[in-house]
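Appendix C: a fully annotated inverse folding record. The material below is reproduced so that readers can follow the format used throughout the book. The structure is listed first as tokens, followed by the designed sequence.
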């Protein structure tokens, strides 16, 4: 398809109408190609023949999206024809057409065409989001209203009064960044300075756009936990707007909240199109549909730690849209559909009537933002399709290039040659324990994990503190790393990109998704008080299925079913460890079942995470590569998702603290609970008799009586 620059006749006057180059991010359904489009006939016919949907409004939009999947859309930079413009509205009026309620059916079709396109090019994001822990950081002030301003003498007092009149149950302030105003705005702000909640900043730099002013505000020491937007020519709807916006963060667990606004004239009278609620945003597809539209709504509010980490582009157009794309890539964006904001349209608005050159400049910038976001999505999604292949390549490369890894894995191979098998068996259970020396794990086994000790050392999972040689693979908001101090033949650490405390809440679904992506691995989780050597940084571990964990734990699952159906099965064991085993047909069923059990555990944990270790895997226990007919065998197993919840009573056994010959430096985590005992002192290996090993397992496990009580409660809620 080709299109060209052209002329427009407006009110009898011919004007140049240049267009912009089409790129991957040019997903707006109102992209201005002009009136004349030329298609290659064979490509046109082929695409039309592939149509599955019958659109009333989105046919042409769908056509050009599908054509763009096959080849480039070419822009000819010549003025080749003239058209007569029939829509004589100003640019400031046209920009809201896509949110006009009268056009809703049109938008629904456009949304569907865009979503289908994103799925076809592997640019679609599923609704999986990073959790937000609002207790990670402390702020003296709960919220700050941020108002960048330059030369708004007619409106700035209205904006500030609107902000200061908010009624909340938390402390807040108003930070105005006065960008070298020359029309009396600065003097007007000084007149309002008697209210101590007003912080009037004037940047030293003279090159700041709106985004740069925002950065100055959010990095100010007085900025609150949440930063809420108020443009210098707008006002809040009433005194409750700020409270409503802040409440939404906690109610929806999101890093950004966008409200609903009403269009008004300067005197606050409603004007067309009236209320702009952006109800095209849905939890599942909001961030995907965001690539099709040119704005996300107002007012916009942000969780300040996330915003400080990202920072705002130093522009005066599109900086808010850029933030929305960036934040929604990882986090949920909350919505408030009640009107909380009044957007005043008047001749002083910076976008009231823009020349074509400025419109093109703005659209080109947002198209580039979308292109960059789309490129990142496609790159990440392609990596997700083949994570195991990428991991094996990284393992090989780290073995070659990183001396520590090379030495550690060679040493592990030698240690495992000294492996000692210990059989634990009794009525209804059998567990094979494999113990071997591994002195390189001494730091992990003896690590102090109390808060003071953890706070005193740099976090070794944070990217800035890792060895320079340590490579990683991005997987959504995690980074997959080779563990340089292994206890397994293939030992991975899967760390959250952001430094946030170890917690399974909000991450169990991620863990099960990872079992799906890494079918040749077991996924493991150690709670912050029972085995996690980095309780300050959320992470999982993974071990290759050659470890045969599931084959080692031949517990009396069959005789202790709690629940059984065609979609899930729940069993438990009380020897030699206390554990609950979940099998589920679907990921959704697994996550739902775990939550039911977790909620019962949490009821007894006094606001702390229950003491648990988790072992999860997909499909069969053996390596898929060892099966010629793996898929055929797997198809015979109806419940593909597996998770063992090891229930704990304490972190370390008494023998860890005993002095003298009776001491055994063993610090059980998920590996030990699954039957793998890496012993950091060789002399301790001799002390691990079947009786002593059984004693350790029982001592750190939930007592049998408590387990029976828990099982009874679980049965009631299933």
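Designed amino acids, in order:
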């Amino acid at each position: 398809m080709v299109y060209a620059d052209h002329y427009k006749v407006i009110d009898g006057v011919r004007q140049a109408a240049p267009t912009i180059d089409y790129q991957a991010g040019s997903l707006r359904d109102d992209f201005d190609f002009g009136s004349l489009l030329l298609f290659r006939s064979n490509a046109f016919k082929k695409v039309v023949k592939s149509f599955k949907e019958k659109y009333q409004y989105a046919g042409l939009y769908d056509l050009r999206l599908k054509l763009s999947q096959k080849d480039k859309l070419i822009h000819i930079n010549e003025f080749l024809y003239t058209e007569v413009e029939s829509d004589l509205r100003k640019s400031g009026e046209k920009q809201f057409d896509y949110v006009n309620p009268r056009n809703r059916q049109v938008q629904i079709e456009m949304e569907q065409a865009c979503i289908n396109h994103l799925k076809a090019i592997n640019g679609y994001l599923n609704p999986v989001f990073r959790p937000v822990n609002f207790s990670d950081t402390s702020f003296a002030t709960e919220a700050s209203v941020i108002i960048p301003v330059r030369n708004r003498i007619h409106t700035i007092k209205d904006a500030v009064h609107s902000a200061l009149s908010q009624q909340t149950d938390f402390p807040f302030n108003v930070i105005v960044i006065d960008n070298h105003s020359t029309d009396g705005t600065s003097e007007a702000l000084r007149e309002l300075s008697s209210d101590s909640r007003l912080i009037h900043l004037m940047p030293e730099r003279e090159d700041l756009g709106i985004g740069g002013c925002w950065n100055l505000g959010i990095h100010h020491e007085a900025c609150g936990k949440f930063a809420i937007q108020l443009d210098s020519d707008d006002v809040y709807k009433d005194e409750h707007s700020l409270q409503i916006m802040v409440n939404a963060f906690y109610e929806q667990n999101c890093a950004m909240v966008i409200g609903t606004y009403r269009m008004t004239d300067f005197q606050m009278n409603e004007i067309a199109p009236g209320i702009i609620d952006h109800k095209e945003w849905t939890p599942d597809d909001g961030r995907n549909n965001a690539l099709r539209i040119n704005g996300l709504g107002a007012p916009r509010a942000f969780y300040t730690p996330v915003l400080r980490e990202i920072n705002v582009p130093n522009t005066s157009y599109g900086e808010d849209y850029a933030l929305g794309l960036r934040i929604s890539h990882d986090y949920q964006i909350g919505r408030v559909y009640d009107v909380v904001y009044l957007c005043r349209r008047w001749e002083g608005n910076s976008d009231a009537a823009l020349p074509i050159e400025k419109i093109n400049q703005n659209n080109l910038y947002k198209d580039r933002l979308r292109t960059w976001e789309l490129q990142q999505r496609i790159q990440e999604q392609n990596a997700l399709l083949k994570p195991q292949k990428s991991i094996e390549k990284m393992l090989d490369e780290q073995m070659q290039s990183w001396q520590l890894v090379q030495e550690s894995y060679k040493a592990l191979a030698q240690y495992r040659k000294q492996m000692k098998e210990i059989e634990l068996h009794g009525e209804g259970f059998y567990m094979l324990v494999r113990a071997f020396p591994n002195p390189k794990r001494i730091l992990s086994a003896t690590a102090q994990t109390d808060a003071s000790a953890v706070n005193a050392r740099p976090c070794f999972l944070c990217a800035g503190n890792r060895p320079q040689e340590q490579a990683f693979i991005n997987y959504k908001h995690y980074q997959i790393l080779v563990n340089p101090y292994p206890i397994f033949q293939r030992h991975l650490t899967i760390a959250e990109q952001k430094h946030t405390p170890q917690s399974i809440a909000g991450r169990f679904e991620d863990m099960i998704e990872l079992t799906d992506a890494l079918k040749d691995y077991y996924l493991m989780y150690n709670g912050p008080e029972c085995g996690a050597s980095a309780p300050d940084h959320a992470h999982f571990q993974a071990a290759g299925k050659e470890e045969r964990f599931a084959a080692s734990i031949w517990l009396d699952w069959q005789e202790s079913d709690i629940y059984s159906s065609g979609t899930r099965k729940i069993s438990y064991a009380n020897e030699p460890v206390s554990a609950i085993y979940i099998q589920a047909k679907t990921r959704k069923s697994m996550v739902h079942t775990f939550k039911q059990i977790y909620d019962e555990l949490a009821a007894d944990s006094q606001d702390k995470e229950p003491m648990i270790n988790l072992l999860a895997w997909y499909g069969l226990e053996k390596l898929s590569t060892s099966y010629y007919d793996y898929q055929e065998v797997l198809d015979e197993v109806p419940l593909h998702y597996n998770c063992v919840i090891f229930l704990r009573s304490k972190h370390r056994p008494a023998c860890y603290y005993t002095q003298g010959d009776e001491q055994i430096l063993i610090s059980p985590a998920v590996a030990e609970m699954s039957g793998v005992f890496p012993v950091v002192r060789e002399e301790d290996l001799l002390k691990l008799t079947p009786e002593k090993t059984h004693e350790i397992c029982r001592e750190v496990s939930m007592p049998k009586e408590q387990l029976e009580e828990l099982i009874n409660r679980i049965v009631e809620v299933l």
